[in-house]
Design brief:
- The protein has 540 residues and is of the alpha/beta class.
- It is built from 16 helices and 22 strands.
- The strands form 4 sheets. Strands 4, 5, 6, 7, 13, 14, 15, 16, 17 and 18 form a 10-stranded mixed sheet that branches.
- A hairpin with a 2-residue loop joins strand 15 and strand 16.
- The longest helix is centred in the N-terminal third of the chain and has 17 residues.
Length: 540
């Protein structure tokens, strides 16, 4: 247990940040939303010298940005759709992320198995084009594999009728920890970043001499304190929830509610032990029975199976999988794995809501046909909304947002920040050896900050495999963690790897957070969330 006196403990990072919010300043930029897009905008703007405050109603990456398939990719399926521009941009941005956060993102080999004679040459040709488009940003050469080579690369693959396969390269990352690295990098660049700070009202300032266009009402969801702040520009980067903030702002200006920007799509992933496919290659089935893609991806010592693409109109904070989605993943994986996965084998299930850009009119073809590109809209009153896109292109999206704001006269033109060369907090120096993301999680995920973690009390006390008391204390002191969920879902990915193990570790984590001054560890709420990460009818 902790032997430090209260006076000796470092001040809580979030408490220090909220103190800054109380200061009577007019911010150049207020970013609403602490996912990949908002954090990318905050870092870019801060590096350009703007005063920036980022406000997230829950935790950083608490929504879609922590629930991806964990892939940094150019989009092989987008190439098949003919969207060459999107693929080119994504391939370039993939290389950037691998460069600026090598402790959290690395190349990963994929194999497409062929169960018909024509599949190897057909998919091989498309993936050779993928290589050519990547150019110098390529991660490895596409190879045509024999049947024996395919089985060696994918142990656990169904061998019956297997003809061969195609091997190609893409990227993999830890999405929640990359978001945290962006938040802390923005903070290091001078931005104020706050989680559990909900924007409850937006109002246009009537006196231009004040230098602010918008007054924001911000509520601290941990203490219920409410503050009013002012900003010259507000960026709405709230993901699938952007339409809520737009409607709120429009009502204040007396306008009609705007047309919706987002057509949400639900993606479900389930996690099983690596014994189902113990190799270091990922599996991609490019076309399932209903035309979707199936992944089997090694990640942090487990195997991720997914994903679905299901339209969803409601926008729950913690969405759950539909029964038919789990049945789809289990059924399709049984076609390609020699040992079928059952419900009892599932360690965790998570669901992400993709903020796909809504078509002009309701489309009946489903979300597979909706654009994955991002859209930027400037509403009356100056609210700038950005949505769509994907994790891989977060940095390019941020640059586009700031350029659009400058072109509209909402921000002054300043030189670009060259975020493509700005290494994130924790990034080891170029050429340093890194541990693969598909390995069992450990101190390597902290990069150059591993020694700072070890310096916290409890470095030798294990709370769960790989997780120490010191890691929890570091999360509270330096990584803005406030709740048990913050620690076990995003600072440490245990909830996403094994819901039962996360529930077992939760009480000890709650005690440590209380010692570190967290106002609401929320243990009971987290235990309920652990149950939601298991299939219906499966007990913790």
């Amino acid at each position: 247990m902790n032997t430090e006196t209260p006076a000796a403990r470092p001040a809580n990072a979030r408490a220090r940040a909220f103190d800054r919010l109380r200061s009577p300043v007019v911010w150049d930029l207020a970013v609403v939303g602490g996912g990949a897009t908002g954090l990318g905008v905050a870092l870019d703007a801060a590096l350009r010298g703007f005063s920036v405050v980022l406000l997230e109603s829950h935790d950083f990456a608490g929504g879609t940005s922590s629930r991806s398939t964990k892939l940094l990719h150019g989009g092989v399926r987008y190439l098949a759709q003919g969207n060459v521009a999107l693929v080119r941009e994504a391939l370039a941005e993939r290389a950037t992320v691998l460069r600026i956060a090598p402790h959290l993102a690395q190349p990963l080999p994929f194999v497409m198995p062929s169960y018909a004679w024509w599949q190897t040459p057909f998919y091989g040709l498309g993936l050779k084009l993928y290589d050519l488009m990547a150019g110098r940003a390529g991660l490895g050469r596409t190879e045509l594999l024999s049947r024996a080579e395919t089985l060696a690369a994918l142990p656990g693959l169904e061998p019956e009728h297997l003809q061969g396969g195609v091997k190609y390269w893409d990227g993999q990352f830890d999405d929640a920890r990359l978001a945290l690295a962006l938040a802390r990098s923005a903070e290091a660049a001078g931005a104020l970043v706050l989680n559990y700070a909900e924007v409850t009202a937006l109002e246009q300032c009537n006196d231009p001499s004040e230098g602010a266009r918008t007054r924001l009402t911000v509520t601290d969801r941990l203490t219920d304190e409410t503050l009013a702040i002012q900003a010259r520009l507000v960026i709405n980067a709230t993901g699938v929830w952007v339409d809520r903030l737009r409607s709120q702002a429009q009502v204040k200006h007396g306008s009609q509610p705007p047309a919706r920007m987002v057509s949400p799509s639900q993606g479900v992933h389930l996690v099983v032990d690596r014994e189902f496919m113990p190799g270091s290659h990922a599996l991609l089935v490019p076309k399932t029975r209903d035309g979707r893609v199936l992944f089997a991806v090694p990640w942090l010592g487990k195997l991720i199976l997914g994903t679905t693409d299901t339209p969803r109109e409601d926008l729950p904070r913690d969405p759950t999988a539909f029964d038919e989605e789990l049945e789809f993943i289990l059924g399709e994986s049984a076609r390609v794995l020699s040992r079928p996965v059952t419900t009892a084998d599932i360690r965790s299930v998570w669901v992400g809501l993709r903020p796909l850009v809504a078509p002009p009119e309701s489309a009946e073809a489903g979300t597979k046909t909706i654009s994955r590109e991002h859209t930027i809209v400037v509403d009356p009153g100056g609210l700038v909304t950005v949505t769509g896109g994907k994790w891989t292109t977060y940095r390019a999206m941020a640059e586009d947002v700031l350029q659009r704001c400058a072109d509209a006269g909402l921000l002054t033109h300043r030189p670009v920040a060259h975020t493509e060369a700005h290494r994130l907090v924790g990034a080891p120096p170029p050429g340093a050896r890194t541990t693969p993301i598909h390995a069992v999680p450990g101190l390597h995920l902290y990069g150059t900050e591993a020694a700072n973690v070890q310096a916290c009390p409890g470095a030798d006390r294990l709370l769960a495999p790989g997780l120490t008391e010191a890691m929890v204390r570091f999360a509270a002191r330096s990584e803005h963690a406030q709740t048990v969920e913050d620690v076990l879902a995003r600072r440490w990915r245990l909830l996403f790897l094994d819901a039962r193990a996360a529930a077992a570790a939760a009480p000890a984590v709650a005690v440590i957070l209380e010692e570190e001054g967290a106002s609401k560890p929320a243990l009971e709420a987290f235990l309920r969330l652990c149950q939601q990460h298991l299939p219906a009818g499966v007990a913790l």
